[in-house]
Amino acid sequence: MGRERRIWSTLLTYVWIVCGCMTDTEVQQFAEVQVKISGTGFTTRAADPDETAVNDLNVYVFDSRGIMEEQIWIPKVTDSSSPNCAITLLKGKDYSFYACANLGRRHELSSVSGLEELRCYLAYPDDYREGMPMAGKAEGIRIEDGQTEVRIALERLMAKISITMDRGGLSGDVSMNVTHVRIGNCPKTARVFTENRVADHDECFSTGFSRNEVECSILNRNAGNGISGTLTLYMLENMQGDIGNITSDSHKVFSEYDVRRETCSYIEIWLDYRSPSLASSDIPLKYRFYLGENRSNFDVERNCHYHITVIPEDDGLSDEGWRVDKSGLEPCSDGTFFSMSPSGYIQTDIGDTLHVRCSFHPLDTDFEIGREELEFDKSRGIYDYEIDPDGRGVCLYLKAPGTGIIYMSAGAPVNQSGMLVVEVNNIKNSIS
After folding, report:
1. Average pLDDT, integer, range 49-68
2. Among 156, 176, 197, which residue terminates a domain?
3. Could you tell me the sign of the dihedral formed by the alpha carbons of 274, 279, 282, 284, in that order?
4. Does one domain contain both 315 and 341?
5. Which of 122, 200, 246, 397 is disulfide-compatible with 295, CB 3.0–4.6 A?
6. CB of 252 closer than 8 Å to CB of 237
7. Is there a cis peptide before residue 413, judged by omega within 30 degrees of 0?
8. What's the pTM?
9. What is the spatial distance between Cα 12 and Cα 75, in angstroms, rounded to a whole number?
10. Could you say which DSSP state residue 378 is in?
11. Which contiguous run of DSSP H or E holds residue 374?
């Protein structure tokens, strides 16, 4: 598995502290300060968070002694109406400005020391989809004559994790279709202005941020040379630091009795596995790996983008134990298999892209995708489609409400077929 870390841009949104004029007497001693919000948000799929949106804002101003000078609460920030809040501050004095966005409510503080304990809380792992929690500060700012603004750059308290599958080294008679991806030990809460670290498993969601079978279909599409599309997940910061001197990925695990296995964040991938000798049962094959800067590190840092490529080789089962859970695999009786993913019935939304893939063995088996059904659904405007270059899958671009059918069939000696019924909703769901 390879991993590249990339920093998100920190200049997401600025809080402008703009000085204006008062009376002649007051101009000599005071400056009237206005808080203006400049949003840089853009529209994303409803199933994903808007990484730059600012919906609410807390602003705190402290003097050089750490005493609260002013607190501002803006409950609703919109692109069409940027709110202004006036603050009167002494000229020639030093002030520190702190801002936090998308916390959902007013947070009262009495002194600067309260910033260390200020936290954001998530009711569920993806409730930031209406706006990621962010924070920023500008410290030791002196209000001078002619000063026009103080800027606070907001940074996300989240980490972004992008996952890609590289099946280029996988044996040709092995099939691995991703059905589910989640973050294990996903934090419920995070400190806003100081480093965040999970201290106990009770501070984590029992089921962290997850992607369902429809969303995971992008990991089953061959974009070229066995490399899939990219799936993205998000989580609050969890700085667990360095642990030991780990020299290989397979050794980045904890014993059953090590409490750190309950606090360090990891990725879990569920796979429908097929080979001539083994196949998934009701329990999928599971890949797991801890996150971090390197093999010995377990940090997941705020406002960072982690790129992870999962590279199964040969039969994809070379690793053992917790990292590769094979308990759900069962022997194949005759060496043949057929697996259509996804299959059965699913609901999805206009604007989604769905990849449907079939794996089978022997590889020279006659195979057919129901083009008549595809063309019929296309004629009704439900979706456009594109057949995979190897003819074993199809990508659907969902355009209109309705119900479509995808049919796949393999001939002798497999003699199996599968069907997927896709119901396309008119209005996208905010929570997947």
Report:
1. 88
2. 156
3. negative
4. no
5. 246
6. no
7. yes
8. 0.82
9. 19
10. H
11. helix 371-379
